[in-house]
């Protein structure tokens, strides 16, 4: 009896162990294939943290010797990252720092009247989604530019509510598998092209061309909708930063970028826009539904900060022409405000008024004592932007700019290669600028030689330079049909104003945080020493790689230019991120004086996901 009892107990023990193993395997598979909770996110984060600690990436550790921290041998360290979990399908459009669910979960006390809920609020490390963002069901490689200006695949942005809501304004129309953009807007139902020509005519520009023979190059369009205004300006050699929040029209910026039109998620709320002073020749608001009179005109004063001397503000809104009592009141108060700001009416016709900003400080100095809004403090930095609160004050010109009267910038396209006026703010000489331009010209030529087996002339449209410095990488792409978002990291020299002086656009950013854009919005990322730089800040390079994957389109490319040890580190994640190597070279191939840098180009594979599986194509 004892023998049979022992045998039964053994069988029960074996059965229990087998059952436990089956349950554990099921939980492992479930976690890897369906990433729908914070618990699985924590697991991914813990794994990444262990890997970084093995590499010597402790938060309190001295970061002087980057190479030693990236030099572990792949065969021996045992930390090759095999896979990342895939985020749940409902996160296919996740923007980590503009996530409304995060605001609710953290119970942030925000002032909705000041648009604080549309400003950036980034998740703490323990709440980050350390997983791969899946494309939506049926995702296709985007339509190529210039055809994409007028149509995109509906499957890529499966949201048609704007087509119904704005059906009388010709924003967009659903046609079968595509969404078509007729070029209309809230205030230009019959097309942005005619509206832009009418604006040029109001300003007496030659041949009704809005670029004013190259003198008008950079534009800020606030409340841009699906960015048809900016899209139609491109044919006039005018580049627009189309700006809108992730609001009730939440996919408008996503549509803009899918179309191949420059755009950025942002709002006029309480913080300064991420652009330096004197960046734009024209600001535009077409029925943007912004209360310009609130808080002593603080939002209009923010536009004043980013406008160049002699810059224009084109305002198309009922207040400019309507005769009802409320609109007349707003018009009177707004007219009084801009008069005290020394703006003058350049033109007013039908539904549009265009104001012009003064060229120098003369008008400011002639105002009566105590006039509101006041001038900003003399020690205030007008180019400090990230996390800086707006101020209800007028940004005066420096003595140099006052004397120049806005006449220093060359017209486009000479502006791109002429030494910018604000170059001297950084102690850079004209000779240094020209050498930088030449060096990046050689580098970009080498990049395209490496990319040539994989690309056609229309393969790449949306480009981001993650560390733009003087903008010479973007300048070297002038003959290609691309546009570049020039990102200047907040911890380096604030050279973004030089970028804008060259007739380019961009934004300041902290790469320890997610960028303000939708997933799958860029065809090419240029990462020059960006991994090395972020490690010095004790931020996670793994998080940055996941962020780069988030904003990169399937079949898109990343150009890493960094130390060999950093490239080796990136290679550890290639399989997990579904990237494949395209080409590599050392800096000698582009006659570079910085001989310890290596060029490594990867391509993101197109993979599709459902709630229960992930299939590669």
TrEMBL record:
Offer an example of a GO molecular function term for this protein: methyltransferase activity
Regarding the membrane, this protein is recorded as: Single-pass type II membrane protein
Q: Which GO terms describe its cellular component?
A: endosome; Golgi membrane; trans-Golgi network
Q: Where are the transmembrane segments?
A: 12-30
Question: One GO BP annotation here?
Answer: methylation
Principal subcellular localization: Golgi
One Pfam assignment: Methyltransf_29
* Keyword set includes Transcription: no
Instruction: Please state where this protein is localized.
Output: Golgi apparatus membrane; Membrane
Q: What is its EC number?
A: 2.1.1.-
Q: Which UniProt keywords apply?
A: Glycoprotein, Membrane, Methyltransferase, Signal-anchor, Transferase, Transmembrane, Transmembrane helix
Q: Which family does it belong to?
A: Belongs to the methyltransferase superfamily.
The identity of this protein, by name, is Methyltransferase
Please name the source species.
Chenopodium quinoa (Quinoa)
Q: Which gene encodes it?
A: LOC110717676
């Amino acid at each position: 009896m004892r023998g049979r009892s022992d045998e039964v107990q053994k069988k029960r023990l074996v059965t229990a162990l087998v059952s436990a193993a089956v349950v554990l395997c099921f939980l492992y598979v479930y976690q890897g294939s369906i990433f729908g909770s914070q618990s699985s996110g924590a697991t991914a984060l813990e794994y990444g943290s262990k890997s970084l600690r093995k590499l010597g990436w402790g938060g309190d550790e001295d970061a002087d010797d980057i190479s030693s921290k990236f030099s572990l041998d792949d065969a021996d360290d045992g930390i090759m990252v095999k896979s990342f979990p895939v985020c749940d399908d409902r996160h296919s459009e996740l923007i980590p720092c503009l996530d409304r669910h995060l605001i609710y979960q953290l119970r942030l006390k925000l002032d909705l009247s000041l648009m604080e809920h549309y400003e950036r609020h980034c998740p703490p490390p323990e709440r980050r989604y350390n997983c791969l963002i899946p494309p939506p069901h049926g995702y296709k490689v985007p339509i190529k530019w210039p055809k994409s200006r007028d149509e995109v695949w509906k499957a890529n942005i499966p949201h048609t509510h704007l087509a119904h809501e704005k059906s009388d304004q010709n924003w967009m129309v659903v046609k079968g598998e595509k969404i078509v953009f007729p070029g209309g807007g809230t205030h230009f139902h019959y097309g942005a092209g005619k509206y832009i020509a009418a604006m040029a005519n109001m300003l007496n520009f030659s041949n009704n061309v809005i670029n004013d023979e190259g003198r008008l190059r950079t534009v800020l369009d606030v409340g841009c909708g699906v960015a048809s205004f900016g899209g139609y300006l491109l044919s006039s050699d005018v580049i627009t930063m189309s700006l809108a929040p992730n609001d009730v029209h939440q996919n408008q910026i996503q549509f803009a970028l899918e179309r191949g039109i420059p755009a950025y998620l942002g709002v006029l709320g309480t913080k300064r826009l991420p652009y330096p002073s004197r960046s734009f020749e024209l600001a535009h608001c077409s029925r943007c539904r912004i209360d310009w009179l609130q808080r002593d005109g603080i939002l209009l004063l923010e536009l004043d900060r980013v406008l160049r001397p002699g810059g224009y503000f084109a305002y198309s809104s009922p207040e400019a022409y309507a005769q009802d009592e409320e609109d007349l009141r707003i018009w009177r108060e707004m007219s009084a405000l801009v008069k005290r700001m020394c703006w003058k009416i350049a033109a007013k016709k039908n539904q549009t008024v265009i104001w012009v900003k003064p060229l120098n400080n003369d008008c400011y100095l002639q105002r009566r004592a105590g006039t509101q809004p006041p001038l900003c403090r003399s020690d205030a930095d007008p180019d400090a932007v990230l996390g800086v609160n707006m101020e209800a004050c007028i940004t005066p010109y420096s003595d140099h700019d006052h004397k120049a009267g806005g006449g220093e910038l060359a017209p486009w396209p000479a502006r791109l290669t002429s030494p910018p006026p604000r170059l001297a703010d950084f102690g850079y000489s004209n000779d240094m600028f020209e050498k930088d331009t030449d060096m990046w010209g050689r580098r970009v030529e080498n990049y395209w030689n490496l990319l040539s087996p994989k690309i056609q002339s229309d393969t790449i449209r949306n480009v981001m330079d993650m560390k733009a410095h003087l903008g010479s990488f973007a300048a070297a792409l002038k003959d290609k049909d691309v546009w570049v978002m020039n990102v200047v990291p907040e911890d380096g020299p604030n050279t973004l104003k030089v970028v804008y002086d060259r007739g380019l656009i961009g934004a300041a950013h902290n790469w320890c945080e997610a960028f303000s854009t939708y997933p799958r919005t860029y065809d090419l990322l240029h990462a020059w020493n960006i991994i090395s730089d972020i490690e010095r800040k004790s931020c996670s390079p793994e998080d940055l790689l996941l962020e780069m994957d988030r904003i990169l389109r399937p079949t898109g490319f990343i150009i890493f230019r960094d130390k060999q040890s950093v490239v080796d580190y990136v290679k550890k994640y290639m399989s997990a991120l579904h990237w494949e190597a395209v080409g590599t070279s050392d800096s000698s191939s582009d006659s570079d004086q910085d001989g310890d840098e290596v060029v490594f180009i990867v391509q993101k594979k197109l993979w599709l996901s459902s709630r229960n599986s992930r299939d590669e194509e």
